[in-house]
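2024-03-11 09:14:02 INFO worker-7 job=invfold-0412 stage=load source=structure_tokens
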């Protein structure tokens, strides 16, 4: 019999009631106690930890947004990394009125994806509390059935990308073919490492569609993803050689623009000057 330990500070009485109903139906023990990490932790019958921990965030109380804004969520996800199977369950519908001026539905989803690729914690989003509770209550039982995954792997032993999850991720990138995917996989052992490096703006030679995709799923501004010299190449009157030189001197295109406007950028091509000054 499993035991689900619930943080006493969990504020949703409705979710606690649903968990009590599920404990009666499924036969697990529900136990409340203050927890330093995670709102829900699953334990085996012998008292050992299953490795399953769940952090719950509610959209209706702005809990998810607040923890994103003040950085608390990132620190929580780092703490959750100590568990073998960490989950972030986001519960509640996206409310366009509530989040107006904060982020769109697309950006909301991008934030969730960003958590998964940056921290390794598995994020899931349910709009209904009943579905979220069902998910939490299924976790230990599905973990016990995990050996079935090995059967699937053997079945597809001749399909390389089915066995190599990271390669499969590279193959799913927009505008990236098999040859380029293999090259990237050779440079970056994991897809997570690839995403983290791209968001530093140091990965060159990717198609525009790929940069756009990485920016969208990580929540990083596009200017942080696209190499700086490529951004300079988009400025009228600046060629590749000049773009490379400017990227060594200026920290961003915006800073360069301000220097041009104040006359502190040195020699500026006529076409570039006209573009920046709007002449």
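2024-03-11 09:14:09 INFO worker-7 stage=emit residues=279
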């Amino acid at each position: 019999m499993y035991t689900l330990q619930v943080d006493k500070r969990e504020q949703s009485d409705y979710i606690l009631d649903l968990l009590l109903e599920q404990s009666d139906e499924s036969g697990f023990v529900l136990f409340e106690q203050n927890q330093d990490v995670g709102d829900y932790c699953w334990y085996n019958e012998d008292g050992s930890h299953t490795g399953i921990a769940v952090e719950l965030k509610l959209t209706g109380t702005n809990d998810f947004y607040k923890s994103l804004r003040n950085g608390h969520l990132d620190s929580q996800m780092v703490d959750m990394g100590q568990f073998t199977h960490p989950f972030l369950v986001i519960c509640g519908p996206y409310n366009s009125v509530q989040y107006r001026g904060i982020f769109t539905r697309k950006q909301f989803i991008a934030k969730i994806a960003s958590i998964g690729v940056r921290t390794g914690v598995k994020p899931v989003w349910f709009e209904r509390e009943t579905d979220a509770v069902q998910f939490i209550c299924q976790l230990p039982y599905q973990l016990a059935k995990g050996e079935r995954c090995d059967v699937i792997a053997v079945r597809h032993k001749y399909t390389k990308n089915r066995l190599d999850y990271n390669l499969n991720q590279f193959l799913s990138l927009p505008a990236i073919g098999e040859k380029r995917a293999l090259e990237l996989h050779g440079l970056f052992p994991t897809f997570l490492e690839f995403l983290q490096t791209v968001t530093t703006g140091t990965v060159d030679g990717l198609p525009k569609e790929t940069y756009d995709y990485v920016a969208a799923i990580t929540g990083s501004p596009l200017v942080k993803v696209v190499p700086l010299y490529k951004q300079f190449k988009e400025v009228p009157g600046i060629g590749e050689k000049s773009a490379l030189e400017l990227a060594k001197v200026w920290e961003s295109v915006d800073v360069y623009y301000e220097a041009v406007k104040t006359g502190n950028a040195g020699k500026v091509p006529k076409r570039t000057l006209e573009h920046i000054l709007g002449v």
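2024-03-11 09:14:09 INFO worker-7 stage=report msg="Strands lie at 3-6, 29-32, 40-43, 49-58, 85-91, 122-126."
2024-03-11 09:14:10 INFO worker-7 job finished
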